[in-house]
Every structure is written in structure tokens, then in C-alpha cells.
Amino acid sequence: MTKIDAAIELCTEDEKKWPDFYNLFLNSHFFVPILHEKDVVVTEDGALPLLVEANDNTYLMLFDTIGRLTDWADEDTKYLGVTGHGITEMSSANIYWALNYGTKAQKFFEPEEIRWLKTIVRQAKEDSDEQSSAAGDSES
């Protein structure tokens, strides 16, 4: 059981634990399968995530271990490691996320939930920038 699994399990037992889960999610490292073609050099800036169409929705697949990713796909699947913050910042809010699909503790993120997370991350960055700016001003 991973920390993400344990957090999801706690949330199913106690709804008040969801903020702890989201904090853990944003600060954890995930593996995102990417599209890969032969003879194409993949860089973090140029990689396209593998999106899955199901039930009239588009899903970004996220896994908290490489083993889970390769269980879902295969050993040759290419992937990028990205933090939850990074996924939130880069992802379109019009798609769904599937976290650890096929496991007991899978979680699906709805677009509204993703938009909310984007707001949280944006606010945290703004607060951090303000604190950095204020610290720089006081040193002058």
C-alpha cells in the first residue's frame, strides 16, 4: 500500500481527511504515460501525455509507481515523472484524471475538482511570490 492508497482509504472512512489527501497529491511524484514514436527525441517540454477516451470523457492517466503504470500498460511504455503541482499546472481543466487506474485505491478527478486544484496551486504561487518580494524589499 502506498501513501496515496492509505490517504484515499482514510478519506473513504472520514470525509474530513480530503484536504490532507489533496495536500499529499500536490506534493507527491507521479508517472504519466506519454506518446512515443520511434526516432523522436522526447524531452519534458515536448512530450505529449497519453490520453484515454472512455465513456465520452478524456482521461489523463496518473500512477504513483512505475510498477502500476507498467501493469496498466506494458514494460516498454515511456513516461515522465511529474509532481502533483506540475500535473495540476500543466493539465487542461477540461479533462478527467485517472489516478492508479485498475487498483483498489483508484481515484478519478472531475474537471471541476481539477479547476479547484488549479486555483489552489495558483494562489500558493502568488502567495510565495509575494513573500519572496517582501523578503527582497526588507533586505534593501
Question: Could you please describe the fold and organization of this structure?
Answer:
With 140 residues, the protein is α+β, with helices and mostly antiparallel strands. The chain has one domain: Trna Endonuclease, Chain: A, domain 1. The chain is 45% helix and 19% strand. The protein is built from five helices and six strands. The strands form two sheets. Strands 2-3-5-6 form a four-stranded mixed sheet. Strands 1-4 form a two-stranded antiparallel ribbon. Helix 1 runs antiparallel to helix 2. The longest helix has 29 residues. It is globular and about 55 Å long. The model has no long low-confidence stretch (mean pLDDT 90).
Distance between the termini: 50 Å
Largest sheet: 4 strands, mixed
Fraction of helical residues: 40-55%
Structural class: alpha+beta
Shape: globular
Q: The CATH topology is what?
A: Trna Endonuclease, Chain: A, domain 1
Which CATH architecture? 3-Layer(aba) Sandwich
Beta strand count: 6
Could you spell the SSE succession in H and E letters?
A: HHEEEHEHEEH
- State the domain count: 1
Mean pLDDT: 90
In quaternary terms, these chains amount to: single chain
Strand proportion, as a percent range, falls in 15-25%
**If you compute it from the alpha carbons, what radius of gyration comes out, rounded to the nearest whole angstrom?**
17 Å
List low-confidence stretches. none
CATH class: Alpha Beta
